[in-house]
């Protein structure tokens, strides 16, 4: 398996805030997923008004070519194509009555739509 673990390095992978890790781990556990193996997949897909959008889902394990980022007890899986777009991005979670959810701050985005859900590089 050629899965790359980037534990301890933040320069070329995804930064995960403690709040994002805590929320994702809670959701994983709520789905009865083993957090030692399972993780959050962060990916980029075509779509949105700016051309590209972020996607997230839980996976039981990484794919062979994924980069695996381990931060604050959370495993994040990123495929090679998506990593080209989101390398160095920060995954955060904000709670509250309005706008609660995961947010990606991407230094590679040259523009984004008004709602912040899609971007262009």
From TrEMBL:
InterPro entries: ATAP, ATAP_core_dom, FeS_cluster_insertion_CS, HesB-like_dom_sf. Residues 16-117 form the Core domain. GO terms for molecular function: 2 iron, 2 sulfur cluster binding; 4 iron, 4 sulfur cluster binding; iron ion binding. Pfam families: Fe-S_biosyn. It comes from the Archaea. GO terms for biological process: iron-sulfur cluster assembly. This is HesB/IscA family protein. It comes from Haloferax elongans ATCC BAA-1513.
């Amino acid at each position: 398996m050629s899965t790359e673990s980037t534990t301890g390095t933040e320069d070329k992978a995804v930064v995960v805030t403690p709040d994002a890790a805590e929320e994702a781990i809670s959701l994983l556990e709520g789905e009865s997923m083993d957090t030692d193996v399972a993780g959050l997949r962060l990916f980029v897909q075509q779509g949105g008004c700016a051309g590209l959008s972020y996607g997230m889902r839980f996976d039981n394990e990484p794919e062979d070519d994924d980069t695996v980022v381990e931060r604050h007890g959370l495993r994040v899986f990123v495929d090679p194509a998506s990593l080209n777009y989101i390398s160095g991005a920060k995954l955060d979670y904000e709670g509250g009555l309005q706008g609660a959810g995961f947010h990606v701050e991407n230094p590679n985005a040259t523009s984004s739509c008004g709602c912040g859900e899609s971007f262009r590089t």
